[in-house]
Amino acid sequence: MTKKFVYFFGGGKAEGRTEMKALLGGKGANLAEMTNIGLPVPPGFTISTEVCDLYYKNNKRYPAGMDEQIKANLVKLEKVMNKKFGDPKDPLLVSVRSGAAISMPGMMDTVLNLGLNEKSLKGLIKLTGNERMGWDAYRRFINMFGDVVMGVPHHEFEHALTGIKKKYRAKNDTDLTAKQLKEVVSTYLKIYKKGTKENFPSDPMIQLKKSTHAVFSSWNNPRAIKYRKINDIKGLLGTAVNVQTMVFGNMGDTSGTGVCFTRDPSTGEDKFYGEYLMNAQGEDVVAGIRTPLPISQLAKTDKKSYTKLVAIRNKLENHYKDMQDVEFTIEQGELYMLQTRTGKRTAAAAVKMAVDMVKEKRISIETALMRIDPNSLDQLLHPMFDPKEIAKIKPAASGLPASPGAAVGHVVFSADEAEKLYESKKYQNIILTRIETSPEDIGGMNVSKGILTARGGMTSHAAVVARGMGKCCVAGSSDLIINYKTKTMTIKGKTIKQGDVVSLDGSAGNIYVGKLNTVEPELTGTFGRIMKWADQTRRLGVRANSDTPHDTEIAVEYGAEGIGLTRTEHMFFDHPGEKAGTRIKPFRQMIMVAEKVKILREDLEAAKTTENAKEIAKLEKELAKPLKQYKDALAALLPLQRKDFEGIFKALKGRPCTVRLLDPPLHEFLPHEIKGQSEMAKMMNIPVKEIQQTVESLHEFNPMLGHRGCRLGLTYPEVTQMQVRAIIEAAINVKRNNRIKVLPEIMVPLIGHVNELTITKDQIEETIAETFKNKKASKTEIPYLIGTMIEIPRAAVTADKIAEVAEFFSFGTNDLTQMGCGFSRDDAGKFLTDYVKMGVYEYDPFQVLDQDGIGKFVDTAVRLGRKTNPKLKTGICGEHGGEPMSVKFCHRVGLNYVSCSPYRLPIARLAAAQAVIEEKLANKTKKKK
Length: 929
Ligand code: PEP
Ligand code: MG
Known about the structure:
Blueprint: E1 6-10, E2 13-14, H1 21-36, E3 44-47, H2 49-57, H3 66-81, E4 84-85, E5 91-92, E6 94-100, E7 110-114, H4 118-128, H5 131-149, H6 154-167, H7 178-196, H8 204-218, H9 222-230, E8 239-245, E9 256-261, E10 273-278, H10 282-287, E11 293-294, H11 298-301, H12 303-320, E12 324-331, E13 334-342, H13 347-359, H14 365-371, H15 378-381, E14 384-385, H16 387-392, E15 397-398, E16 400-403, E17 406-412, H17 415-423, E18 430-434, H18 442-447, E19 450-453, H19 461-469, E20 472-475, E21 480-483, E22 488-491, E23 494-497, E24 501-505, E25 510-513, E26 518-519, H20 525-537, E27 541-545, H21 549-557, E28 563-567, H22 584-610, H23 613-652, E29 656-660, H24 674-684, H25 688-697, H26 710-715, H27 717-738, E30 743-748, H28 754-775, E31 785-790, H29 793-797, H30 799-803, E32 808-811, H31 813-822, H32 829-838, H33 854-868, E33 873-876, H34 884-892, E34 897-900, H35 905-928
Parallel strand pairs: 4-5, 17-18, 18-19, 19-20, 27-28, 27-34, 28-29, 29-30, 30-31, 31-32, 32-33, 33-34
Antiparallel strand pairs: 1-2, 1-3, 3-8, 6-7, 6-8, 9-10, 9-12, 10-11, 12-13, 14-26, 15-25, 16-20, 17-24, 21-22, 22-23, 24-25
Helix pairs in contact: 4-5, 5-7, 6-7, 13-14, 13-20, 14-20, 20-35, 21-23, 22-23, 23-27, 24-25, 27-28, 34-35
The site of phosphoenolpyruvate (PEP) has 10 residues, from strand 28 and helix 31.
């Protein structure tokens, strides 16, 4: 027996269910589900996604038995509808629509009114008594079929229609009479013949076959491929095809069509939300050609349908226990449901709905946590316009608040150009400004910070896509007059050129000319509730990477349980409120003389062994000045570092703090320009030439693999001593003066061999002992730890040895990726983009941890380390610590914490909670098996 490829729905029951999304696509599975729960769904059948897969595998041919199954289902449909395909008296008309398991709005093809020809049209007209509507349906069908199925350019039909409208002075399509539409049809048929070199097919079976082929082919059209790439949609078989009885929203004033959300998709508010148009077909609402009405209005014009729709809204929410995005049509007063799916929502709405639905006892806390995409929280963590500032100024124009947030950027009028300008780095902040957007604009929308349109409603393409992308959008601002040719727009008489800066407030729907200031977002309310639940659920700790007291304060506010990485080298650059050069000058002086001091000291040691008094005296004299400069520089740096640490410890209020000793190659700090070199020469009272020679001598061909990390401390131990003294003195001061617990964790960077750590640890402990002695302190007062970064593959595979010396490991996955994959952190961007495109790596390994490769180093090091040191504390402080998939990996390999930038903390907290829930679900499934 051949496999089942086609699934019927109609007559009160369906062969599919929601759970069959992978096979029937989201649309097909939900049409089946709605049928099963008794909603008014026009009957039809779904051709499975498996067919799409086989279609491509089989050189664009259907699998055997497929045609017979379609025919059998068509017969069934005719029976349920009591109509016949192509019947000249009472024809069955169908729509053919795509529908993949994950919704890809507007990306694939649709054909409506299929089954019409000269004969069946007569039947339709007779039956509906509406000649105008019949001819309108037919001309739409020829246009859609010609464009979508046969590739006749849409603008050719559009051009002809405009011509006929002009001829009869018709303003809108709806102004054309039946006779005039008949003329449109005859022109369209000619355009079709010219474009395809064949007559328009009158046989509905041929129409159906060609249309289903077209839908399957559209799975791999460039915009669908791009959409899947942007939205990271992978692993689907293909699209399903839904063949469904047509219902008409354009049969006059008692007919209409609309799109609704069971709750507000922008704010999450529990209010029925949507738009509709009377006497219109579905695409009229989405295309934004006519401005739709708010759904509440329907209560006034068609109370019966509105009441029914509200009841369906409640039934759908009770059934699916999630916000639904539905499409409906009213045909001569009769309501039909054409689609339901889980509605796309902004992050703010996702959070509010999840919390509300827990309160309403619809879902569990765990389900609520799983409903929110951790990455989307980013939208809530970004600044908004300062409410005080916008209260004082009037917007230049306003439109619909289609997707919340704030965006400031350069106006660009074409999506292609936006992509080019972004890639060439001319503009990184772009406001894509269009009359209306279409699926072709997807790439340009993706690189833009905000979207602005002159036409279209809350469910227009621009609004839906922007919300899905989490971008700010103001839609349908009729104040804008956009001229693509001159690349300008006028707002109430004021001209804005391409490249000018505007500010968009997507929450209020306002447009401002120029740049507005932004403020930090609020972290309380429903957001705080979700975070609380995440914290109660997660096992993994969360810390932040922070180098300043200010960032540490933000980190604590965002939920940091400590600092996982303080990069001390960042403390040597200028600080606000300090005189320029306060820090960098002594630091440069220290570097300048460090090597000289080292060489002279070695020579002196050698001279001492030969007891050459003259040589000893000469070297001692030579060493005196650089040594003084070396010590002076370190003495100047010590209080600055101490002050910074005190600030961080205070802001942490008793939380632990991992402070990393100096890491980067020294030459990064040196003056490479003559101005800086002269300044240094003057300050140190030496010739510029000497400065230049030192800069030259410190040059490295591979600085990332050069004199950096623990290697610096091993060759210049005074640097380590100064840093450790600053950390411990700061800890003692804060403990004593502010009565705050301080838990410093001193971290040694770039260890590859255990001996590097052993020697460094001795230096650290010696300095701590000395500082404790001077300050009459002890480890009981300041319970410090000494540990290391694991960021060199050698360290990872010898972690058992290293853990005998280290009290903690922190995975530096930036360097571990660099050294493990052999990709330069600074140069790999160029080819990694191609690598991801080619599928060599699924994601950029610097952004998403390469779990199969670099992840193995992490896993191995944790296992080996814990073998020799069961109390070993482990964390991650590379960029991956704030990336959800990587955070979940860290949970699975049993790290104690992740550390990331303060703004990514809520993302990490939620991802860590989801990791626990996913683990539970996986264990349950395992048990079942
Ligand atoms: C790392 O290598 O992952 C790390 C955190 O250190 P840095 O980025 O400072 O080299
Ligand atoms: Mg590193």
